[in-house]
Amino acid sequence: MIGSGQQWPVASLGPIARARALGASIPSAAWTEGILDAPYGTAWPWVADLEVSVPRFDTQVRKIRVLDRSEGAGAGPGAGPGAEKLRITASTLGIAVPFDVRLEDGFCLMQARARIYLVLMAAEPHDDGAHTRFFHLEAIPLPGTRFLRGHLQRVVDADFANLSRLAAQGF
Amino acid sequence: MDALVRALIPYVGRVCGAIALDRGDDAMQETFIAVLRNIRSLREPAALHGWVRRIAVREAIRAARGGREDPVDPDALVGLALAPVDVATVVDVRSTLAGLAPEQRAILVLRDIDGLSEAEAARLLGVPEGTVKSRLHRARSAFTRRWEP
Lengths: 171, 149
Fold this sequence. Notes:
The complex is a heterodimer.
Chain A: H1 15-24, E1 30-36, H2 40-48, H3 50-57, E2 63-71, E3 84-92, E4 95-104, E5 107-112, E6 118-126, E7 131-139, H4 149-168
Antiparallel strand pairs in A: 1-7, 2-3, 3-4, 4-5, 5-6, 6-7
Chain B: H1 2-20, H2 24-38, H3 48-64, H4 93-98, H5 102-113, H6 118-125, H7 129-147
Helix pairs in contact in B: 1-2, 1-3, 1-5, 2-3, 5-7, 6-7
């Protein structure tokens, strides 16, 4: 046996690779990925403040309310640093939809309580942190919803365009 | 699904890192895409670990070969030239692994990280048990030569 004390090389799954893998398993998932003209150290903290950020770049959401936040809950092996679980409501067309959120550094998974909608955002430093590589995905994780992918693609493209504009303006 | 990914990250990271080396991160992403796309085909939950292992080893070998899927002729590994020994890097596992073929690294991972028998490793890789024995012997010899001044 090779000694167990030796340091075997270990591969990692970054936030964007993790989001891509999750998205690839959902037939209706639409996503976009690109570079934001803002440093990661500025962009991600702004995005992670969901009450402020989401209503500004997501035209479908008028308001986000954080109902409950538990820091470090259920981080578990393989999780990114500083994992948080949030319960939020996202108001769309006057209806407040409850979501469970998992928020980590560079990774945000938002799942509607009824499992009818899923939003994923992931980010990593680009150009040594001077810019931000951003991944945004929306999906309806229900059987027979693949035909909605075209609509969802227009939604995420519009969201990303808004986010790009806001990043260029310094949020 | 994300909870499953988080639970599997440490194990898949070790398999992909040791076999695919610098391409380990790519192998890891492809492993999880394959796992999540096909998880519904897994009828027996108890078989999850072995199923994920098979996918991770396959994707790691493919990534290490630069994406090529063509199987390596086991005979071609006989007499494989190992990297020159650098006594200064006594326990440099990575550089020793880099001197091995991806299939040899896979054998090491399956035997020395996962604890599979030679027969089990042979079944997983689709090669005769004798090939596993010879690959393992050469791989371990590479480490021994590294570590013995």
